[in-house]
């Protein structure tokens, strides 16, 4: 899978990207926002290769877990800077699909997360999803800002999918089409 924006290439992760995945997912400042409980830092290249392998075997379009590669000619050009994803929410009863993103700290503040998320929202809605959800930790202001920038509506705090309470955002296909 490959999608492009003005500055980014959204593509499948490869096993050769393992050092980059390790660099990103071994950083507490990234991992503290992922999942429930204490951050679980990636330990080594073997774990990175294994994780990438799980991302690659997903076969449930329009869902997936993709690398974000910068292609803008700037200082991060050619560098994989993180992930963008569409995956089923855990503990979901109605097939809810979550959009998510996590980027290397070197790539924070450049607008890459909303840019990548918009193209993935397009993919999800073109693939037939009626709505797409986002959940963030209660104090993850950066991710809440991304959700708002891509047009998602804040619906409050929920405990539906994760053990810890989460800020909840959603956008419907109709809302997305009206923004286009």
How would you sum up this structure, described in words?
The chain has helices at 18-25, 28-31, 45-56, 112-126, 141-149, 173-179; strands at 2-4, 8-12, 64-70, 80-88, 97-103, 131-136, 153-158, 166-172. The protein is an alpha+beta fold and 180 residues long. It has one domain (2-179): Gcn5-related N-acetyltransferase (GNAT) (Aminopeptidase, 3-Layer(aba) Sandwich), CATH 3.40.630. A five-stranded antiparallel β-sheet has the order 1-2-3-4-5, with helices on both faces. Strands 6-8-7 form a three-stranded antiparallel β-sheet. α1 packs across α3 (45-56). The longest helix has 15 residues, at 112-126. The model has no long low-confidence stretch (mean pLDDT 95).
Quick description:
By secondary structure, this protein is of the alpha+beta class.
Summarize the topology.
Blueprint: E1 2-4, E2 8-12, H1 18-25, H2 28-31, H3 45-56, E3 64-70, E4 80-88, E5 97-103, H4 112-126, E6 131-136, H5 141-149, E7 153-158, E8 166-172, H6 173-179
Antiparallel strand pairs: 1-2, 2-3, 3-4, 4-5, 6-8, 7-8
Which descriptor suits the 3D outline?
Answer: globular
Share of helix among residues?
25-40%
* Biggest sheet architecture: 5 strands, antiparallel
What is the architecture at the second tier of CATH? 3-Layer(aba) Sandwich
The tally of strands reads: 8
Rg measurement, Å: 15 Å
What is the CA–CA distance across the termini? 23 Å
- CATH class label: Alpha Beta
Helix-strand topology string? EEHHHEEEHEHEEH
Give the helix/strand class. Answer: alpha+beta
Beta fraction: 25-35%
Superfamily (CATH H level) name: Gcn5-related N-acetyltransferase (GNAT)
- CATH names the topology as Aminopeptidase
- Helix tally equals 6
Instruction: Enumerate the strands of the largest sheet in spatial order, edge to edge or round the barrel.
Output: 1-2-3-4-5
Instruction: Count the domains.
Output: 1
Low-confidence stretches: none
Oligomer: single chain
């Amino acid at each position: 899978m490959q999608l492009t924006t003005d500055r980014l290439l959204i593509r499948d992760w490869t096993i050769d990207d393992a050092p980059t995945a390790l660099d990103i997912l071994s950083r507490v400042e990234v991992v503290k926002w992922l999942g429930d409980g204490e951050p679980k830092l990636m330990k080594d290249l073997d774990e990175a290769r294994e994780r990438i392998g799980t991302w690659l075997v997903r076969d449930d379009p329009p869902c997936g877990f993709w690398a974000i590669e910068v292609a803008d000619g700037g200082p991060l050009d050619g560098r994989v800077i993180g992930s963008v994803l569409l995956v089923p929410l855990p503990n979901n009863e109605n097939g809810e699909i979550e959009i998510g993103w996590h980027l290397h700290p070197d790539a924070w503040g450049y607008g890459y997360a909303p840019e990548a998320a918009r193209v993935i929202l397009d993919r999800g809605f073109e693939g037939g999803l009626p709505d797409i959800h986002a959940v963030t930790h209660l104090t993850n202001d950066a991710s809440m800002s991304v959700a708002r920038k891509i047009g998602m509506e804040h619906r409050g705090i929920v405990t539906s999918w994760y053990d810890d309470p989460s800020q909840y955002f959603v956008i419907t296909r109709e809302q997305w089409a009206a923004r286009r």
